[in-house]
Amino acid sequence: MAQELLSLQGLRIDGRRQNELRQIQCRLGVLERCDGSAYMLHGNTKVIASISGPKHPTKNSANKNRGGDEFIFNVRVKFATFSKNGERQKVVKNSKKLGEIEINLKNIFKSVILVEKYEKSQLDLNIEILQTDGSEICTVVNAATLALIDAGICMKEYICACTASLTNDGVALLDVSHLEEICGGPTLTIAALPRTGDHEQSVAYVELSQKFYLKDLNKIFDCALMGCEKIRGILDEAIRSNAFELVNSELTNN
Amino acid sequence: MAYNALSEAEKVFILHGIQDDFRNDGRSRRDFRPMELQTNVIASACGSARFCIANSDILVGIKPEIDAPFPDKPEEGKIEFHVDCSANALLDFEGRGGEELALEISNCLRITYASPFAFDLKSLCILPKHQCWKLYVDILILQCAGNLYDAISFAVKSAFYNLRIPRVNSALLDGGNVDLVLSDDPSDCDRLDVQSIPILLTICKIGEHCVIDPSIDEEICSSSNIVVGVSRNKIVSLKTISGGSFHPDTIENCIDLAISTAKTLDNTLMNILKHEESLTKSKKNIKCSFLN
Amino acid sequence: MANIKINLLMNKAKYTSDLGENNCRIYTTGEVITEQKDFMRGHGTYVEDGLIKSSVVGVVRQINKLISVVPLKSKYVGEIGDVVIGRVTEIQKKRWKIDTNSRLDSVLLISSINLPGGELRRRNAEDEQSMRKLLQEEDLLSAEVQNVYVDGSLSLHTRSLKYGKLSQGILISVSPSLIKRRKNHFHNLPCGVSVIIGNNGYIWISPIVNVEIEGQGGFAQSLDAISKSDREAIVRIKNCVQALASCYVMIYDTSITFAYEESLKYEAKELLNHDTMYEIGFNTKLKLMQQE
């Protein structure tokens, strides 16, 4: 391990505190020709998510589904070739890593979308990762949530995702950057429905890599959940201010 | 909400509009839609730009890598174009439609940049016969609302303007191995001369008339399209796309139209690029974040 | 001379409708609206633990005991009696499949149309075979929602003279939530343009057709050239509607007329610029508020 994740003063490599998020910026409705879209900048990770549908299934998808009446949800994730620092990414088709992310996303969002309302229809979620700097999956999940909301898809809750890590001394670190990822240490990624107050939080997705002491599990989990709550606040604010600027009191007395 | 189908009557309406020199959005046959541009949008690329013509939205990132030159062209660098269509950009992009279009566009760019008038590949040479820069120009189509070729070529030119190649302080041949010393200072870098970098103009023949900057609906109505690559009032490439045929006289007219339009366009583009650079310099705190 | 303009995305303004008194309450996904005991849940809501919660982001609409949330942007959810505009996607046995901007294609049964000239349908194989003569793939039509099936798809009918195949004109698509529900969705504007505002967010702009002569209720199409003055008015209305949609102003006859009047100081093609669009939208909104 080349570098200490947490300095003696309690600062991380990029100068953050232990429970501090990186800067997050987001915008809804960035692509006018899509049914819904969102842009998200989390630290230096940049993602655009776009939605097409719900629509009548195209022949391709209908065939795959063998004429069933189920809701067809397609997810496509792509890393832009210029997305990483250093060498250019090769163009790979059907890579396992992307396939894995796609399946995860599908499962995460099927747990919140009110699927019964979209029987027989097709919904396409398309994600372009323009720049990467750690915690890509989180940024992708958060961007996809915003895009689904922009498209007016019925969902139970926002889904927010966040990562957390652990230093050698057992201090939990919130929102892992790329630099911290490669420094080692376990990384926990969770996607949660983090409404506080009126309902229990529930977790839709967990991924934890590397070994660590079981006694630290609660610590790292709480840390990541707290991050999800914070992110929920940020998303909520973005959604509300977007809606507020646009909405017209006339919508109500229509 | 993308709509790419048109009924016969709608096509007739567009056709008559072009005859009257009053298109479906009020433009004349010689007008471009409003365009927008931003450079330096991707921090992980050495040069990047986003360019929009109406809702055609293009993102370009350039990454240089060190490579060995071709044996038959020992003093020249290399450029490679790669086009990628976002799946929701056009409904046809689902499946293989997008790949074919992407290949067609990158081929068109390749032949355009192959001309020595257009791009000085020698400027990418580091050590003749041994090392040169290979520029990967990656193009991402985020949205398509017609006139992709033009939008992509402007985006690529803007990204080249923004490109900063790390400076090579010394390159020595040590036995069979090449010893490169790159500058440690990231702000110490080389820029390319972009004056002569070509732009592409699509001339679209609809009915009896030629129009520039066709919208997606107009592209459906067109009988034939030709893409003209122009660099400093010279033609560097000519390519028909998407079927159809031209009378030789019409091609001549198209070329004249392309050259006169390209002149104004090129000037406007260079001016706005310089303007943006001066703005970025004076206001240091402009965030390097795309879409703000 | 070609009209060419490039702007910087860096300087692009974002539209804000800061008219002061914006006091409407926005509900977000998962937010509790009320207890279920007193109310029934409508579109855009779901029930959990006896509470009615919002499943989309939007404003609450209450009709007696029925609570629904109207999202800012969504696909069209049909209601019986709505006027819609659709495009034929497929011809099947005894029915047309119509795209109406909803999550499933709608159906127009051959028994739900009036034949041209009020002729009665002979229920034989012949008129099933001649379906394509009436409506082809890609043709546009106006219709009314007759029924909503259990799966949410719509069945349409054109049993009135005002419905039927559409001829020359321009279609634009906006979010269905921007369409104001009115008694009448067919308007002949004073500027000599006919507008059909479909509840499904598709808006059809065309020259005024004399119903009695042309018989719009039929399936005749006129392919004659439109006069330039008519064309200019149509294009201007199209650009105005687009400006209203980009500023989130409700779209109905009054707002379109106001926007048209507001736009007259500009040329039609100037309405493509964002600044002009925002100005038109903002001023129209002001004017509508003053009128109330």
UniProtKB/TrEMBL annotation, chain A:
GO terms for biological process: nuclear mRNA surveillance; poly(A)-dependent snoRNA 3'-end processing; rRNA catabolic process; U4 snRNA 3'-end processing. Pfam families: RNase_PH (PF01138). Its main location: cytoplasm. GO terms for molecular function: RNA binding. Keywords: Cytoplasm, Exosome. Residues 20-153 form the Exoribonuclease phosphorolytic domain. GO terms for cellular component: cytoplasmic exosome (RNase complex); nuclear exosome (RNase complex); nucleolus. Non-catalytic component of the RNA exosome complex which has 3'->5' exoribonuclease activity and participates in a multitude of cellular RNA processing and degradation events. Belongs to the RNase PH family. This is Putative exosome complex component RRP41. It comes from Polypedilum vanderplanki.
Automatic annotation (TrEMBL), chain B:
One of its GO terms (biological process) is exonucleolytic trimming to generate mature 3'-end of 5.8S rRNA from tricistronic rRNA transcript (SSU-rRNA, 5.8S rRNA, LSU-rRNA). GO terms for molecular function: mRNA 3'-UTR AU-rich region binding. Residues 31-166, 197-260 form the Exoribonuclease phosphorolytic domain. The keyword Magnesium does not apply. It comes from the Eukaryota. One of its GO terms (cellular component) is cytoplasmic exosome (RNase complex). Pfam families: RNase_PH, RNase_PH_C. It is found in: Cytoplasm; Nucleus, Nucleolus. Coiled coil: none annotated. Its main location: cytoplasm. InterPro entries: ExoRNase_PH_dom1 (IPR001247), ExoRNase_PH_dom2 (IPR015847), ExoRNase_PH_dom2_sf (IPR036345), Exosome_comp_Rrp42_subfam (IPR050590), PNPase/RNase_PH_dom_sf (IPR027408), Ribosomal_Su5_D2-typ_SF (IPR020568). Keywords: Cytoplasm, Exosome. PANTHER family: EXOSOME COMPLEX COMPONENT RRP42, EXOSOME COMPLEX EXONUCLEASE RIBOSOMAL RNA PROCESSING PROTEIN. Belongs to the RNase PH family. This is Ribosomal RNA-processing protein 42. It comes from Polypedilum vanderplanki (Sleeping chironomid midge). The lineage of its organism: Eukaryota, Metazoa, Ecdysozoa, Arthropoda, Hexapoda.
Automatic annotation (TrEMBL), chain C:
It comes from the Eukaryota. Residues 75-147 form the RRP4 S1 domain. One of its GO terms (biological process) is U4 snRNA 3'-end processing. One of its GO terms (cellular component) is cytoplasmic exosome (RNase complex). Residues 169-207 form the K Homology domain. The keyword Repeat does not apply. Its main location: nucleus. Residues 30-61 form the Exosome complex component N-terminal domain. It is found in: Nucleus. The keyword Plastid does not apply. GO terms for molecular function: RNA binding. Keywords: Exosome, Nucleus, RNA-binding, rRNA processing. Pfam families: ECR1_N (PF14382), KH_6 (PF15985), S1_RRP4 (PF21266). Belongs to the RRP4 family. PANTHER family: EXOSOME COMPLEX COMPONENT RRP4 (PTHR21321:SF4), PNAS-3 RELATED (PTHR21321). This is Ribosomal RNA-processing protein 4. It comes from Polypedilum vanderplanki (Sleeping chironomid midge).
